Structures are given as structure tokens and as C-alpha cells.
Known about the structure:
The chain has 347 residues and is α+β, with helices and mostly antiparallel strands. It contains seven helices and twelve strands. Strands 5, 6, 7, 8, 11 and 12 form a six-stranded antiparallel β-sheet that branches. The chain is globular.
Amino acid sequence: xxxxRPKALLRCAVxxxxxxxxxxxxxxxxxxxxxxxxxxxxxxxxxxxxVIVRSYAAGWARVVSKRDQAAxxxxxxxxxxxxxxxxxxxxxxxxxxxxxxPRLREAKVxxxxxxxxxxxxxxxxxxTWTSLEVYPYREVLEFxxxxxxxxxxxxxxxxLVDNVPLPPVAIGADGFxxxxxxxxxxxxxxxxxxxxxxxxxxxxxDQQVATSxxxxxxxxxxxxxxxxxxxxxxxxxxxxxxxxxxxxxPGAYRTAAYRLSxxxxxLMLTLTGSRQMFPKDRQVVPFIRQDGSRxxxxxFIPPGAYSAVDYETTAMLAVEVPPAESKGQLRxxxxxxxxxxxTTSPP
Length: 347
């Protein structure tokens, strides 16, 4: 009895003590959660984003060098996946040799901090690629994560030209960028929907008239992806027998706009389009012909003679948008367009 009683007393003393410790710990956790200085963690940090981008680069090298469709589905989704898939199918139809795996020369990430990470979450990456086959080129990509724990994949991508650098994105002292919802015009001169509608009309070939062009030129800045592109296309239709008439519709515009250092915003969006090719004068050129190599009309058209060819296309753009209070012009800084399918009309 003398040995059992102290053990019983010890057990009686330990139980209340454990209860006190547990309650105290719970109260402490509650106090820490309610502390204003504690901020919800972002969906991804700049360091994590850099790791994601380098993993993407390794996957992209497999896609280019092996046309690995499984690897492609692991690193891209949405519009980017549809466009790249169409491109790879075209390369196979043309019996093009496999390309050299590109090397990632430089990677810069733009990661927004959100007070409460909303999904899908996004971040931008500016990549510089190089290989023995092509001159170094740069592209801007938007990565997307549909939900917490889901893989990050590229949703949209567009290539920059050398003389149009990506405008600098404003980065705060904490290393994160400012992100706003672009579905309205509270922050941007044009909301995402209005911007997509404006640019889809701007690039239509049936808008190439003096009055409409003058009105658009007040809103859209000159550049290789705007006035230069429309002038080249108009000149080709004027000087060559084969005509290309393009029409665009607003596609799956993005809802995330990134603050630029000059106060503007950078937004990526998609335009879906169609392009009809036909002879200008059928007395001179009665039909258009596709040879066995399929290089003339593209990989989706079998050899033969046709009166017209209709293409479905997708364009991805990165656009610099002035702030709401500004009268500045839009500037398209990156562009990528790909035919995704085609149909023919008999001669």
C-alpha cells in the first residue's frame, strides 16, 4: 500500500497538469492566429517560382527534342497546351526532324502577393532561350495553379521581339508584385473584356480603312505587333495574288494584371481567329495548290488544288495597359499565333 499510494497521487497530480498545459497551448495558438502581424502565406514565393520555372525548362527541352506529348501535358494547360499540341502535330505532318533541346539562359519571375491566395493563382516568368539552331529569343509565360497542392503549369505564353523589351514590373520591398483583377476598369484604362474586344477588332483585316485605322491609332501604339503587323498584312494582300483575310474574336482573357513601374499594367490575353486564303483574281490564278511537302499551305492541308482554305488560329498576347486615369496608348509587347486546324473548298 505504501508504494501504490504515491503512484496514485502522482497520477492525480499529472492529469490536471496536462489539462492546464493543453488549454494554455490552445489559448496560445488562438492568440497567435489572431495577431495582426501574421499574414497568410502566398501561393508561391519567388524562390519557389524559380524552381518551378527551371523544372518547366527541363520539361520543355524534352518536348522540343523528343516531341514528348506526355511531358507537354505535365508542364502546360489551357490555351498554351492547345497551341503547342497543334504545333507539334504540324511538325510531325511535315516530317520535320526533331529539334535541339533549347537551353534556358536566363529566368526572371514576377510573383504577386495576395492577402488571401485565391485560386487559380498566377505568376509571370520572363525566359531567355538559346540553342545552336536559333538566335536567343525571349518569351513571357503565365503560370497557373488551379488549387492548393495542384501542379503549376503554363497557361499562356507569347514571344517578345528584341527591340520591344518587357516593361519593368513593380516589385515591392518584400519581393512581391502587385496584382489586380482586370475584369473591370477600376485600375486599367480598359478592362480585360473590353481590351480583348478592342484588339480583336483592331487585327481584323476588314478594319483596314482609313477612318477606322485613324481611330484605332489613337488608342493602340505603333509597334511590330500592332501597326507594323497590320501594315505588313495589308501590303501582302495588295502585292500578292493569294489573299489572307483574318477575323478575330475575344478568347479566354486573363483576369490577373501586374503593376508596372511606370504605373501601367501588364495583362496577358487570348484571341481566337479565323483566316481565309483565296486567289485575288481567279482569271489570273484559278485555284491554290498544295504540293507533297505541305510547306505551301501548311501541315493541316493535304496535297491538292483548292478554291479556298479556311484556318482556325489562336493568338496569345502580352499587353501593356495604361492606368485608368491615363490617356496613354496600348502597347502589345509579345505575340504568339498558331494555326490549330484547317478546312478546304474544292476548286
